[in-house]
Amino acid sequence: MRAIGVLAILAAALTATGAGAELMVAPLRQVVTAKTPVVRYQISNPSDRFVDARIGWIDLSATPEGYAAASPALRPGLSAAPYLVVSPARLRLPPGARAEVVVRLKKGAAIPAGERRSHLLIETTPARTPLRRASAGLEADVGIGVSTPVILRGGYAAPLVAFEESKLIRDENGALAFETVLKSDGKYSAYGTLEASLLIDGRRELMARIANVAVYPDAGVRRLVLPLAREFLPAGTLRVAFTGASEERGREWAVKSFEVAPPDPAPVSERR
Fold this sequence. Notes:
Layout: H1 3-7, E1 24-26, E2 30-32, E3 38-44, E4 51-58, E5 60-63, E6 66-69, H2 75-78, E7 84-87, E8 90-93, E9 98-105, E10 114-124, E11 127-133, E12 136-142, E13 145-154, E14 160-170, E15 176-185, E16 190-200, E17 203-215, E18 221-227, E19 236-244, E20 252-260
Parallel strand pairs: 2-13
Antiparallel strand pairs: 1-3, 3-9, 4-8, 4-10, 5-6, 7-9, 10-13, 11-12, 14-15, 15-18, 16-17, 16-19, 19-20
């Protein structure tokens, strides 16, 4: 569990183009089922040095804001790792190289009903990195790692998802943002993209987008903030939608619309 402090490994924070300074991982999430017992990850090394990595598992419980270390009491009903095998256990990647990591259902394993989750953990061997302070030379061992969720599903029933506690807020710079809580009822997670669009006179303007959003059954809710990057919204309809991605592509999980009145007073740019 020592890796958690190094990682800040919330999988929802990983991106397809970079999951850390040392390694990149794709895809960001995989689902193992009886029909899909084998999944594959591509691990690449964009750095200018050789990277040695250990590959294993870590269990994280879902929270409204992301993830936290799973307690011993939660792990037996949460962890997918006892049902899975990962190979290889170690990697050595030259600069610019990539490798494949395979996760498969254990031979003879019976998938329990419902959904379990473990995070594939790819932890690099600490590299001795020079640090400089004043005129003294210091060195520190720096370890870097990434993780990505592996979902184990026995059966499936789409959860019911709804927006709750939605409101406009302002950030520390005075710009508007949309804060919301997504609530999911069911035994399986909802996964997709959250988008905010402004509809004005039949025209649609995409204002903000967050990909790789998951609402897991062990949390039941997910709190999110969509930065709108504006001080005012013109009159129109603000439409916020949570739509499916990956195996749920095309599914509309939840939609909410808000009528926006003209700003009062009007922004300086609109005054005559």
